[in-house]
Amino acid sequence: MNQPSDLERIQDAAVTAQAMDDLDALIDAVERAVDSGQLDAVAAVLAALRPADRVDVFESLDLHQQKLMIGELTQEEAAEILEEMEDEDAAEVAGALHPEDLAPILDAMEPDEAADVLGDLPREHAESALEAMDDAAEADARSLMAFSDETAGGRMTVDFVALRTTDTVGESIEKLRGMAPDAEAAYYLYVVDEHDRLAGVISLRHLVVARPDTRLAELMDTDVLEVPASADQEQAARMMARYDLMALPVVDDAGRLVGVITHDDLVDVLEEEATEDMYRLVGLDEEERAVDPVRVSVRRRLPWLALNLGMALVLVSALDSFERAFAAVPVLAVLFPLVTGQGGNVGTQTMTFVVRSMALGELAGGNQRRLLVKEVTIGLVNGLVIGAMAAVIALVVASDTGLAKQIAFAIAAAMTLNLAAGGLLGVIVPLTVRRLGYDPAIASSVFVTTATDTLGVLFFLGLSYLVLEMA
Protein backbone atom coordinates (compact mmCIF):
# COMPACT_ATOMS: atom_id res chain seq x y z
CA MET A 1 0.00 0.00 0.00
CA ASN A 2 1.49 3.34 -1.04
CA GLN A 3 2.16 5.83 1.73
CA PRO A 4 0.89 9.38 1.11
CA SER A 5 3.56 11.88 0.10
CA ASP A 6 4.55 14.88 2.19
CA LEU A 7 2.63 17.14 -0.17
CA GLU A 8 -0.48 14.95 0.07
CA ARG A 9 -0.36 14.91 3.87
CA ILE A 10 -0.09 18.69 4.07
CA GLN A 11 -2.79 19.14 1.45
CA ASP A 12 -5.10 16.83 3.41
CA ALA A 13 -4.41 18.86 6.54
CA ALA A 14 -5.19 22.07 4.63
CA VAL A 15 -8.51 20.76 3.36
CA THR A 16 -9.49 19.51 6.83
CA ALA A 17 -8.40 22.76 8.50
CA GLN A 18 -10.43 24.98 6.18
CA ALA A 19 -13.47 22.70 6.37
CA MET A 20 -13.40 22.69 10.18
CA ASP A 21 -12.24 26.31 10.50
CA ASP A 22 -9.33 25.07 12.62
CA LEU A 23 -5.80 25.81 11.44
CA ASP A 24 -3.90 24.27 14.36
CA ALA A 25 -3.34 20.91 12.65
CA LEU A 26 -2.27 22.56 9.41
CA ILE A 27 0.13 24.90 11.20
CA ASP A 28 1.75 21.95 12.99
CA ALA A 29 2.12 20.08 9.70
CA VAL A 30 3.60 23.10 7.95
CA GLU A 31 6.13 23.77 10.71
CA ARG A 32 7.31 20.15 10.62
CA ALA A 33 7.56 20.26 6.83
CA VAL A 34 9.60 23.48 6.87
CA ASP A 35 11.93 22.10 9.54
CA SER A 36 12.51 18.99 7.41
CA GLY A 37 13.22 21.06 4.30
CA GLN A 38 10.02 20.24 2.36
CA LEU A 39 9.61 23.85 1.28
CA ASP A 40 8.14 23.12 -2.15
CA ALA A 41 5.30 21.12 -0.58
CA VAL A 42 4.52 23.93 1.85
CA ALA A 43 4.66 26.52 -0.93
CA ALA A 44 2.11 24.53 -2.95
CA VAL A 45 -0.25 24.35 0.00
CA LEU A 46 0.12 28.05 0.86
CA ALA A 47 -0.73 28.97 -2.73
CA ALA A 48 -3.97 26.97 -2.47
CA LEU A 49 -5.17 28.49 0.81
CA ARG A 50 -7.54 31.41 1.19
CA PRO A 51 -5.60 34.68 1.72
CA ALA A 52 -6.50 35.06 5.40
CA ASP A 53 -5.63 31.42 6.18
CA ARG A 54 -2.40 31.72 4.17
CA VAL A 55 -1.27 34.66 6.29
CA ASP A 56 -2.17 32.89 9.56
CA VAL A 57 -0.07 29.88 8.57
CA PHE A 58 2.81 32.03 7.36
CA GLU A 59 2.82 34.14 10.54
CA SER A 60 3.03 30.98 12.66
CA LEU A 61 6.56 30.42 11.31
CA ASP A 62 9.58 32.09 12.85
CA LEU A 63 11.45 34.76 10.90
CA HIS A 64 14.08 32.34 9.57
CA GLN A 65 11.38 29.96 8.31
CA GLN A 66 9.45 32.86 6.78
CA LYS A 67 12.54 33.97 4.91
CA LEU A 68 13.00 30.46 3.53
CA MET A 69 9.35 30.23 2.46
CA ILE A 70 9.35 33.62 0.72
CA GLY A 71 12.03 32.26 -1.60
CA GLU A 72 9.79 29.35 -2.59
CA LEU A 73 6.74 31.45 -3.42
CA THR A 74 6.08 33.34 -6.62
CA GLN A 75 6.47 37.10 -6.42
CA GLU A 76 2.69 37.53 -6.62
CA GLU A 77 2.09 35.04 -3.79
CA ALA A 78 4.74 36.68 -1.61
CA ALA A 79 3.26 40.10 -2.38
CA GLU A 80 -0.22 38.96 -1.31
CA ILE A 81 1.13 37.67 2.00
CA LEU A 82 2.98 40.90 2.80
CA GLU A 83 -0.11 42.93 1.88
CA GLU A 84 -2.29 40.92 4.28
CA MET A 85 0.16 41.06 7.20
CA GLU A 86 0.27 43.81 9.83
CA ASP A 87 2.60 46.62 8.74
CA GLU A 88 5.17 45.93 11.46
CA ASP A 89 5.23 42.19 10.75
CA ALA A 90 5.48 42.73 6.99
CA ALA A 91 8.37 45.13 7.51
CA GLU A 92 10.17 42.56 9.68
CA VAL A 93 9.95 39.96 6.92
CA ALA A 94 10.94 42.50 4.25
CA GLY A 95 13.87 43.63 6.35
CA ALA A 96 15.20 40.07 6.45
CA LEU A 97 15.33 39.91 2.65
CA HIS A 98 18.14 41.21 0.46
CA PRO A 99 17.01 44.37 -1.40
CA GLU A 100 17.48 42.58 -4.74
CA ASP A 101 15.13 39.81 -3.59
CA LEU A 102 12.66 42.23 -2.01
CA ALA A 103 12.32 44.59 -5.00
CA PRO A 104 10.38 42.19 -7.31
CA ILE A 105 7.94 41.44 -4.49
CA LEU A 106 7.38 45.15 -3.92
CA ASP A 107 6.82 45.59 -7.68
CA ALA A 108 3.97 43.05 -7.46
CA MET A 109 2.33 44.76 -4.46
CA GLU A 110 -0.26 47.51 -4.54
CA PRO A 111 1.63 50.84 -4.55
CA ASP A 112 0.23 51.98 -1.19
CA GLU A 113 1.05 48.65 0.46
CA ALA A 114 4.59 48.70 -0.93
CA ALA A 115 5.06 52.25 0.34
CA ASP A 116 3.88 51.21 3.82
CA VAL A 117 6.44 48.39 3.94
CA LEU A 118 9.25 50.62 2.67
CA GLY A 119 8.36 53.33 5.15
CA ASP A 120 8.86 50.91 8.06
CA LEU A 121 12.29 49.72 6.87
CA PRO A 122 15.63 51.28 7.83
CA ARG A 123 16.40 54.11 5.41
CA GLU A 124 19.40 52.46 3.73
CA HIS A 125 17.56 49.17 3.23
CA ALA A 126 14.49 50.94 1.83
CA GLU A 127 16.59 53.06 -0.53
CA SER A 128 18.43 50.01 -1.87
CA ALA A 129 15.13 48.21 -2.47
CA LEU A 130 13.67 51.27 -4.21
CA GLU A 131 16.64 51.50 -6.56
CA ALA A 132 16.18 47.85 -7.51
CA MET A 133 12.44 48.22 -8.21
CA ASP A 134 10.77 48.72 -11.57
CA ASP A 135 10.86 52.42 -12.53
CA ALA A 136 7.08 52.90 -12.50
CA ALA A 137 6.60 51.06 -9.20
CA GLU A 138 9.50 53.01 -7.67
CA ALA A 139 7.97 56.32 -8.74
CA ASP A 140 4.58 55.37 -7.26
CA ALA A 141 6.15 54.23 -3.98
CA ARG A 142 8.27 57.37 -3.62
CA SER A 143 5.29 59.63 -4.26
CA LEU A 144 3.27 57.86 -1.55
CA MET A 145 6.14 57.79 0.95
CA ALA A 146 6.17 61.59 0.89
CA PHE A 147 2.97 61.61 2.96
CA SER A 148 2.61 60.86 6.66
CA ASP A 149 1.02 57.51 7.50
CA GLU A 150 -1.74 59.28 9.44
CA THR A 151 -2.91 61.42 6.50
CA ALA A 152 -5.23 60.80 3.57
CA GLY A 153 -2.15 60.90 1.31
CA GLY A 154 -0.55 58.16 3.39
CA ARG A 155 -3.66 56.00 2.98
CA MET A 156 -4.34 56.51 -0.72
CA THR A 157 -3.35 54.39 -3.68
CA VAL A 158 -2.28 55.78 -7.03
CA ASP A 159 -4.01 52.89 -8.82
CA PHE A 160 -7.11 54.69 -10.12
CA VAL A 161 -8.80 55.55 -13.40
CA ALA A 162 -8.73 59.18 -14.60
CA LEU A 163 -10.35 60.26 -17.85
CA ARG A 164 -10.42 63.69 -19.51
CA THR A 165 -13.37 66.05 -19.71
CA THR A 166 -12.71 66.36 -23.43
CA ASP A 167 -12.75 62.59 -24.04
CA THR A 168 -15.74 61.05 -25.75
CA VAL A 169 -17.48 57.97 -24.44
CA GLY A 170 -15.99 55.89 -27.24
CA GLU A 171 -12.47 57.15 -26.55
CA SER A 172 -12.90 56.52 -22.84
CA ILE A 173 -14.00 52.92 -23.37
CA GLU A 174 -10.96 52.31 -25.55
CA LYS A 175 -8.74 53.81 -22.83
CA LEU A 176 -10.29 51.50 -20.25
CA ARG A 177 -9.64 48.48 -22.45
CA GLY A 178 -5.99 49.53 -22.70
CA MET A 179 -5.67 50.22 -18.96
CA ALA A 180 -7.39 46.95 -17.95
CA PRO A 181 -8.07 48.28 -14.43
CA ASP A 182 -8.81 45.82 -11.64
CA ALA A 183 -12.24 45.75 -10.03
CA GLU A 184 -11.22 47.96 -7.12
CA ALA A 185 -9.86 50.71 -9.35
CA ALA A 186 -13.08 50.80 -11.39
CA TYR A 187 -15.46 51.62 -8.52
CA TYR A 188 -15.66 55.15 -9.87
CA LEU A 189 -14.24 56.70 -13.02
CA TYR A 190 -12.84 60.12 -12.23
CA VAL A 191 -12.74 62.92 -14.76
CA VAL A 192 -10.01 65.59 -14.74
CA ASP A 193 -9.47 68.78 -16.73
CA GLU A 194 -6.45 69.74 -18.81
CA HIS A 195 -4.55 70.63 -15.62
CA ASP A 196 -5.34 67.28 -13.95
CA ARG A 197 -7.72 68.97 -11.53
CA LEU A 198 -10.61 66.79 -10.40
CA ALA A 199 -13.68 67.90 -12.36
CA GLY A 200 -16.22 65.12 -11.85
CA VAL A 201 -17.03 61.45 -11.61
CA ILE A 202 -18.92 59.01 -13.81
CA SER A 203 -20.04 55.45 -13.26
CA LEU A 204 -19.12 52.63 -15.59
CA ARG A 205 -22.79 51.95 -16.24
CA HIS A 206 -23.42 55.50 -17.46
CA LEU A 207 -20.37 55.24 -19.68
CA VAL A 208 -21.52 51.99 -21.28
CA VAL A 209 -25.07 53.12 -22.08
CA ALA A 210 -24.19 56.61 -23.39
CA ARG A 211 -23.74 57.53 -27.05
CA PRO A 212 -20.11 56.97 -28.19
CA ASP A 213 -19.67 60.57 -29.41
CA THR A 214 -20.82 62.19 -26.14
CA ARG A 215 -18.17 64.19 -24.25
CA LEU A 216 -17.57 63.22 -20.64
CA ALA A 217 -18.03 66.83 -19.59
CA GLU A 218 -21.69 66.43 -20.53
CA LEU A 219 -22.18 63.16 -18.60
CA MET A 220 -20.08 63.51 -15.48
CA ASP A 221 -21.44 64.38 -12.05
CA THR A 222 -19.63 67.52 -10.88
CA ASP A 223 -20.83 67.13 -7.28
CA VAL A 224 -17.95 64.90 -6.26
CA LEU A 225 -16.63 64.56 -2.73
CA GLU A 226 -12.87 64.86 -2.27
CA VAL A 227 -10.35 65.12 0.53
CA PRO A 228 -6.98 66.96 0.66
CA ALA A 229 -3.91 64.75 0.77
CA SER A 230 -2.84 66.50 3.96
CA ALA A 231 -6.13 65.78 5.77
CA ASP A 232 -6.13 63.43 8.75
CA GLN A 233 -7.03 59.85 7.90
CA GLU A 234 -9.93 60.01 10.39
CA GLN A 235 -11.51 62.82 8.38
CA ALA A 236 -11.35 60.69 5.24
CA ALA A 237 -12.78 57.67 7.06
CA ARG A 238 -15.66 59.73 8.46
CA MET A 239 -16.51 61.08 5.00
CA MET A 240 -16.53 57.60 3.47
CA ALA A 241 -18.68 56.19 6.27
CA ARG A 242 -21.11 59.14 6.29
CA TYR A 243 -21.72 59.13 2.54
CA ASP A 244 -21.37 55.35 2.05
CA LEU A 245 -18.57 55.67 -0.49
CA MET A 246 -16.63 52.77 -1.96
CA ALA A 247 -13.75 55.10 -2.81
CA LEU A 248 -12.75 58.69 -2.04
CA PRO A 249 -10.57 60.83 -4.34
CA VAL A 250 -7.56 62.61 -2.83
CA VAL A 251 -6.36 65.94 -4.23
CA ASP A 252 -3.30 68.12 -3.69
CA ASP A 253 -3.30 71.82 -2.77
CA ALA A 254 -3.98 72.76 -6.40
CA GLY A 255 -6.98 70.42 -6.66
CA ARG A 256 -5.14 67.89 -8.83
CA LEU A 257 -6.20 64.27 -8.42
CA VAL A 258 -3.28 62.41 -6.85
CA GLY A 259 -4.83 59.25 -5.47
CA VAL A 260 -7.84 57.36 -4.18
CA ILE A 261 -8.72 55.85 -0.78
CA THR A 262 -10.67 52.60 -1.14
CA HIS A 263 -13.13 50.92 1.22
CA ASP A 264 -10.59 48.38 2.51
CA ASP A 265 -8.39 51.27 3.63
CA LEU A 266 -11.42 52.69 5.46
CA VAL A 267 -11.79 49.48 7.46
CA ASP A 268 -8.09 49.59 8.38
CA VAL A 269 -8.32 53.21 9.51
CA LEU A 270 -11.38 52.64 11.67
CA GLU A 271 -9.80 49.55 13.26
CA GLU A 272 -6.53 51.35 13.96
CA GLU A 273 -8.17 54.46 15.38
CA ALA A 274 -10.53 52.45 17.58
CA THR A 275 -7.62 50.37 18.89
CA GLU A 276 -5.53 53.47 19.46
CA ASP A 277 -8.24 55.24 21.46
CA MET A 278 -9.11 52.12 23.45
CA TYR A 279 -5.48 51.47 24.35
CA ARG A 280 -4.67 55.05 25.20
CA LEU A 281 -7.63 55.34 27.54
CA VAL A 282 -6.04 52.70 29.76
CA GLY A 283 -2.39 53.63 29.21
CA LEU A 284 -1.42 51.00 26.63
CA ASP A 285 0.73 51.65 23.59
CA GLU A 286 -1.14 50.90 20.36
CA GLU A 287 2.03 49.22 19.03
CA GLU A 288 2.00 46.57 21.79
CA ARG A 289 1.39 43.01 20.64
CA ALA A 290 0.69 39.76 22.47
CA VAL A 291 4.04 38.34 21.29
CA ASP A 292 6.13 41.27 22.59
CA PRO A 293 8.83 40.40 25.16
CA VAL A 294 8.09 41.14 28.82
CA ARG A 295 10.72 43.91 28.96
CA VAL A 296 9.07 45.75 26.07
CA SER A 297 5.61 45.65 27.65
CA VAL A 298 6.98 46.70 31.04
CA ARG A 299 8.81 49.64 29.47
CA ARG A 300 5.61 50.80 27.76
CA ARG A 301 3.26 50.38 30.73
CA LEU A 302 5.43 51.48 33.65
CA PRO A 303 5.32 55.26 32.95
CA TRP A 304 1.53 55.20 32.96
CA LEU A 305 1.44 53.36 36.30
CA ALA A 306 3.92 55.86 37.72
CA LEU A 307 1.66 58.71 36.60
CA ASN A 308 -1.30 56.99 38.27
CA LEU A 309 0.70 56.70 41.48
CA GLY A 310 1.56 60.38 41.39
CA MET A 311 -2.06 61.36 40.83
CA ALA A 312 -3.16 59.02 43.64
CA LEU A 313 -1.18 61.20 46.06
CA VAL A 314 -3.92 63.79 45.64
CA LEU A 315 -6.44 61.28 46.98
CA VAL A 316 -4.10 60.32 49.84
CA SER A 317 -3.78 63.97 50.82
CA ALA A 318 -7.57 64.33 50.87
CA LEU A 319 -7.95 61.25 53.05
CA ASP A 320 -5.25 62.44 55.42
CA SER A 321 -7.22 65.61 56.08
CA PHE A 322 -10.06 63.54 57.55
CA GLU A 323 -7.96 61.32 59.83
CA ARG A 324 -9.81 62.58 62.91
CA ALA A 325 -13.19 61.79 61.35
CA PHE A 326 -12.09 58.22 60.67
CA ALA A 327 -10.85 57.87 64.24
CA ALA A 328 -14.12 59.17 65.67
CA VAL A 329 -16.44 57.20 63.35
CA PRO A 330 -14.52 54.22 61.87
CA VAL A 331 -17.53 53.11 59.78
CA LEU A 332 -16.86 56.07 57.45
CA ALA A 333 -13.73 54.27 56.20
CA VAL A 334 -15.92 51.32 55.22
CA LEU A 335 -18.47 53.41 53.30
CA PHE A 336 -16.48 56.06 51.44
CA PRO A 337 -15.25 53.65 48.67
CA LEU A 338 -18.89 53.34 47.56
CA VAL A 339 -18.94 57.01 46.61
CA THR A 340 -15.51 57.17 44.97
CA GLY A 341 -16.02 53.96 43.00
CA GLN A 342 -19.36 55.03 41.51
CA GLY A 343 -18.05 58.49 40.63
CA GLY A 344 -15.11 56.93 38.78
CA ASN A 345 -17.44 54.61 36.89
CA VAL A 346 -19.65 57.48 35.71
CA GLY A 347 -16.63 59.59 34.75
CA THR A 348 -15.09 56.76 32.74
CA GLN A 349 -18.38 55.97 30.98
CA THR A 350 -18.89 59.60 30.00
CA MET A 351 -15.27 60.12 28.98
CA THR A 352 -15.31 57.00 26.76
CA PHE A 353 -18.51 58.19 25.09
CA VAL A 354 -17.08 61.69 24.54
CA VAL A 355 -13.78 60.43 23.08
CA ARG A 356 -15.70 58.21 20.66
CA SER A 357 -17.98 61.10 19.67
CA MET A 358 -14.91 63.23 18.99
CA ALA A 359 -13.42 60.52 16.80
CA LEU A 360 -16.64 60.46 14.77
CA GLY A 361 -16.74 64.26 14.45
CA GLU A 362 -20.06 64.57 16.31
CA LEU A 363 -19.08 67.29 18.77
CA ALA A 364 -19.44 70.75 17.28
CA GLY A 365 -19.72 73.80 19.58
CA GLY A 366 -23.47 73.58 20.21
CA ASN A 367 -23.34 69.83 20.63
CA GLN A 368 -20.65 70.19 23.29
CA ARG A 369 -22.87 72.37 25.45
CA ARG A 370 -25.88 70.11 25.02
CA LEU A 371 -23.77 67.05 25.83
CA LEU A 372 -22.41 68.72 28.97
CA VAL A 373 -25.92 69.49 30.26
CA LYS A 374 -27.11 66.01 29.30
CA GLU A 375 -24.29 64.15 31.07
CA VAL A 376 -24.55 66.25 34.25
CA THR A 377 -28.32 65.62 34.30
CA ILE A 378 -27.78 61.89 33.81
CA GLY A 379 -25.28 61.96 36.67
CA LEU A 380 -27.74 63.74 38.96
CA VAL A 381 -30.60 61.34 38.20
CA ASN A 382 -28.40 58.27 38.59
CA GLY A 383 -26.89 59.81 41.71
CA LEU A 384 -30.30 60.22 43.35
CA VAL A 385 -31.20 56.60 42.63
CA ILE A 386 -27.83 55.06 43.55
CA GLY A 387 -27.54 57.47 46.50
CA ALA A 388 -30.85 56.23 47.92
CA MET A 389 -29.63 52.65 47.59
CA ALA A 390 -26.33 53.56 49.26
CA ALA A 391 -28.23 55.26 52.08
CA VAL A 392 -30.04 51.99 52.83
CA ILE A 393 -26.67 50.22 52.96
CA ALA A 394 -25.35 52.92 55.32
CA LEU A 395 -28.35 52.52 57.63
CA VAL A 396 -27.54 48.83 57.98
CA VAL A 397 -23.75 49.16 58.28
CA ALA A 398 -23.86 52.08 60.74
CA SER A 399 -26.89 50.86 62.71
CA ASP A 400 -24.92 50.35 65.92
CA THR A 401 -23.26 53.79 65.92
CA GLY A 402 -26.32 55.87 66.78
CA LEU A 403 -25.46 58.07 63.77
CA ALA A 404 -26.92 55.92 61.01
CA LYS A 405 -29.41 58.52 59.75
CA GLN A 406 -26.80 61.27 59.53
CA ILE A 407 -24.33 59.03 57.72
CA ALA A 408 -27.08 57.79 55.37
CA PHE A 409 -27.98 61.38 54.46
CA ALA A 410 -24.30 62.24 53.89
CA ILE A 411 -23.68 59.29 51.59
CA ALA A 412 -26.88 59.92 49.58
CA ALA A 413 -26.01 63.58 49.04
CA ALA A 414 -22.34 62.82 48.32
CA MET A 415 -23.27 60.12 45.81
CA THR A 416 -25.58 62.52 43.95
CA LEU A 417 -22.95 65.26 43.83
CA ASN A 418 -20.13 62.92 42.83
CA LEU A 419 -22.03 61.23 40.00
CA ALA A 420 -22.98 64.66 38.64
CA ALA A 421 -19.31 65.65 38.92
CA GLY A 422 -18.34 62.44 37.10
CA GLY A 423 -20.59 63.41 34.18
CA LEU A 424 -19.18 66.94 34.18
CA LEU A 425 -15.53 65.85 34.28
CA GLY A 426 -16.09 63.10 31.73
CA VAL A 427 -16.98 65.83 29.23
CA ILE A 428 -14.68 68.66 30.29
CA VAL A 429 -11.41 66.73 30.63
CA PRO A 430 -11.21 65.22 27.10
CA LEU A 431 -12.46 68.49 25.55
CA THR A 432 -9.77 70.42 27.43
CA VAL A 433 -7.05 67.94 26.48
CA ARG A 434 -8.02 68.28 22.82
CA ARG A 435 -8.08 72.09 23.05
CA LEU A 436 -4.52 71.96 24.38
CA GLY A 437 -3.52 70.15 21.19
CA TYR A 438 -3.24 66.59 22.53
CA ASP A 439 -5.09 63.38 21.75
CA PRO A 440 -8.12 63.41 24.11
CA ALA A 441 -7.68 59.68 24.75
CA ILE A 442 -4.24 60.26 26.31
CA ALA A 443 -4.29 60.65 30.10
CA SER A 444 -8.02 61.51 30.22
CA SER A 445 -8.72 58.36 32.22
CA VAL A 446 -6.20 59.05 34.98
CA PHE A 447 -7.32 62.68 35.42
CA VAL A 448 -11.03 61.83 35.47
CA THR A 449 -10.62 58.92 37.87
CA THR A 450 -8.37 60.84 40.26
CA ALA A 451 -10.66 63.87 40.24
CA THR A 452 -13.84 61.85 40.93
CA ASP A 453 -12.13 59.82 43.65
CA THR A 454 -10.87 62.97 45.36
CA LEU A 455 -14.20 64.78 45.04
CA GLY A 456 -15.98 61.69 46.36
CA VAL A 457 -13.85 61.75 49.49
CA LEU A 458 -14.38 65.49 49.96
CA PHE A 459 -18.14 65.27 49.38
CA PHE A 460 -18.74 62.27 51.63
CA LEU A 461 -16.36 62.98 54.47
CA GLY A 462 -17.02 66.72 54.33
CA LEU A 463 -20.79 66.24 54.51
CA SER A 464 -20.39 63.55 57.15
CA TYR A 465 -18.31 65.93 59.25
CA LEU A 466 -20.94 68.67 58.94
CA VAL A 467 -23.97 66.52 59.80
CA LEU A 468 -22.12 64.81 62.64
CA GLU A 469 -21.12 68.20 64.10
CA MET A 470 -24.77 69.24 63.94
CA ALA A 471 -25.98 66.01 65.56
Present the secondary structure layout.
Elements (H helix, E strand, L loop, with lengths): L5 H15 L3 H12 L3 H10 L2 H9 L3 H8 L4 H10 L2 H9 L3 H10 L2 H9 L3 H10 L2 H11 L6 H4 L6 E3 L4 H11 L9 E4 L5 E5 L1 H6 L6 H4 L7 E2 L4 H10 L4 E5 L5 E6 H19 L12 H27 L2 H6 L2 H29 L5 H33 L6 H32 L8 H27 L1
Parallel strand pairs: 1-2, 4-5
Antiparallel strand pairs: 2-3, 5-6
Q: How would you describe this structure to a colleague?
A:
With 471 residues, the chain is mostly helical. The protein has 3 domains: 6-150, Alpha Horseshoe (MgtE N-terminal fold); 162-262, CBS-domain (Roll); 294-470, SLC41 divalent cation transporters, integral membrane domain (Tetracycline Repressor, domain 2, Orthogonal Bundle), CATH 1.10.357. The chain has helices at 6-20, 24-35, 39-48, 51-59, 63-70, 75-84, 87-95, 99-108, 111-119, 123-132, 135-145, 152-155, 169-179, 204-209, 216-219, 233-242, 263-281, 294-320, 323-328, 331-359, 365-397, 404-435, 444-470, and strands spanning 162-164, 189-192, 198-202, 227-228, 247-251, 257-262. The strands form 2 sheets. It has a 3-stranded mixed beta sheet with strand order 1-2-3. A 3-stranded mixed beta sheet has the order 4-5-6. Helix 16 links the parallel strand 4 (227-228) and strand 5 (247-251). Helix 18 (294-320) runs parallel beside helix 23. The longest helix has 33 residues, at 365-397. The radius of gyration is 30 Å and the shape is elongated. 37% of the residues are buried. The mean pLDDT is 82.
